[in-house]
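Changelog note: in this version the structure field was regenerated for every chain. One regenerated record is shown below for reference.
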Amino acid sequence: MKFSFSRLFVFVNASILLTAQSVSTQLVEIPDPNLRKAVRETLAMPDELSLNQQEMLRLKRLSAWDSEITDLTGLEHATSLIDLGLCGNQIQDLRPLAGLVHLEGLSLCGNPISDISPLANLINLKGLDLGGDRKIVDITPLANLIQLERLNLNRQSIYDITPLANLTQLTHLTLENNYVTDFGPLANLINLERLWISRNPGSDFTPLQTLNLTDFRYDQVCEMPPLLPPVRERIESRSFPSIFQPWNDVVGSDHLTWEQRNVLHDLHWTPTFNDTILWDVTPMEPAAGVATSLAGPLARAREIRQRRFDQNSNMIFLGGAANTAHPTVDAFPPDSDLWLRDANGEILRKSDGKLLIDFVKPEFQDLLAKRISAFARCGLYDGIMLDEFNHHGNGFGGRHLYPYTDEEIIQAYTNIFREVRNHVRDDFLIIINTGRSKPMRYAEYVNGIFMETGHDYPYGYTHGGLYEIENTLLWSEQNLRAPRINCVEGWGIPTEPPDSPANRRRMRVFTTMSLTHSDGYVVYNTGGWEPGHFWYPFWDANLGRPVGEKAQHYGDVDGLFIREFTNGWAVYNRSGKTQTITLPAPAAPFSDRGNNAVSQT
């Protein structure tokens, strides 16, 4: 019997060894080609070798951000993983991660994940990033992850944060851009050092007073006096040419940071100061389109604004508010009567898909006046820019869908401007996009026009078209409310590089037109609606301040203009001919065309 037992023992052990060997060599299928590529590259495995379970056990760390991964099948075999980074993919199903209990770091930001229940047993996690796609509502599966030290839940759809109450090891917690009204569950997180909760409707922070926070970002309603230096001083002390930045960015200057590009400009709309200042959505004003206050972490916003001032002390910052259309239906509460609707109650849209606002309604007039005034109450801003005011607000996309006369629309906007001026400071700036038209009916209310000049024919301008632009610009300089901030945008030739000879020549036309016909701002884009613009060395000239009169002809030459500045002269030639000029003092040309710049534009 003893002998037989020994043989049985050996047989059983042999079976165990054989089974273990078969498991370690079992092939692993990873259907997603992008995940498979990332795993192979991390393991340094050539394509001709097959992935098996033993190889998967070698995976300790895997980073595959922005790799278009959709399926995690196969990762369930990587049970030795300690750190996994998969942000910026298209992952929805987390079940393959459920057994990776050795994970200490997991980054899943920017994936369309809604169900995080497979993470419930990953009790060794110390860092978890789930920021970014508005899909996650229920965070109950996080309740037992008590080793967590860093947790990012930014930009989700979370209302209830009770499951976080026992995560007392947390030192960094991000909950920005959610729907949290009660921050009480965070009161016992005594190790918290950094807490970011901006862009939530909750405003009672008393439960957090006992926490020893070193970095606390929360929303404060932006109500502060205008920051110095005064607007007029910044406008009147700047040197020329003076370039403005509308919605678009500088192209071809990737060696500069966004902020370095931004401060090249003397006027900018619509800054949010790195998304710190946004509309204050509250239970009473439950959608961004009906909010009448701006809010955010004010200390950080002031720091960002001051940093830009330190680099360009003449900068002007303008906010923006929608007056004719919103891009998404969630701008207003469900079933809002502020939309323009057809006979069946359907919201009408512009040709670009944006939803039209019934802005003639008295309740929207009142709302828009309050929203504009919010920028005046928030001293980070110097004014506001309003779009689509061609032909006094009657020349916008979708106009034919409105059942109102031109005069009714003009009266609605007049009501809004009058109400705003009754509630804002005298130097609060209002600029409207009029194209080439003159805003005669609004002259007493607005400080400037944005001239989105368009083309007269495909990618080009006629002499008559340039004259029309000059005429509107000069009228606006003479008739609009002071201080004036007229902005001319020339449109480039999109079929050519922005620094092609033809584009540089046209850029000089618009720059010198602005210099000789206004004390305003200019930009030349790459061609079309809301594109970027190139930064031309021509704009680095320092002409100083204007001395001469506007629109002064050189001699009796039609279409040839000259204006003196403290450091030189600007010459604008619309005559269609090469012209020779004589300056009253020696001058060095500043142009990208060499020494001919003195005689030609």
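Spot check on this record: The chain has a mean pLDDT of 92. DSSP finds ten helices and 25 strands in the chain.
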